[in-house]
Amino acid sequence: MRIGDLAARTGVSVRSLRYYEEQGLLTSSRSPSGQRHYTEDDIERVHFIQRLYAAGLSSRTIASVLPCVDAPSEENSDAALERLAQERDRLSAHIDELVRTRDALDRLTAIAREHRERMRATAA
């Protein structure tokens, strides 16, 4: 199937599919005229890539774990597990920072409300 067909069947833009190829996440064969051609298996691969993006992984991280899918081996699995553990730690640190930011906003909101109430009380 051509790139437009793959885009239509996966709901992913042609631009994104080209980007996936540039990043080494997806491969295609080329016709003599240079058109990209994909297989039915590429539909599931694109969906898999999309799930990894939705999980917050970067294209670099996805590229580093795909060997576990493409060429399963103990070495590839170990490398993927290590990379995913690093990614989980990174996300956990980011979540911790977001919680601290939310807590600071909650404190500022409480201060602003107290100030507003004092202003109303003195105006009355």
From TrEMBL:
All copies of domain HTH merR-type, residue ranges: 1-68
Coiled coil: none
DNA-binding is among the record's keywords: yes
Keywords tagged on the record: DNA-binding
SMART domains with a match to the protein in the record: HTH_MERR (SM00422)
The organism's place on the tree of life at top rank: Bacteria
MF terms (GO), sorted A to Z: DNA binding; DNA-binding transcription factor activity
PROSITE patterns: HTH_MERR_1, HTH_MERR_2
UniProt key word DNA-binding: yes
Listed InterPro entries: DNA-bd_dom_put_sf, MerR-type_HTH_dom, MerR_fam
PANTHER family according to UniProt: MERR FAMILY REGULATORY PROTEIN (PTHR30204:SF97), REDOX-CYCLING DRUG-SENSING TRANSCRIPTIONAL ACTIVATOR SOXR (PTHR30204)
Official protein name in the record: DNA-binding transcriptional regulator, MerR family
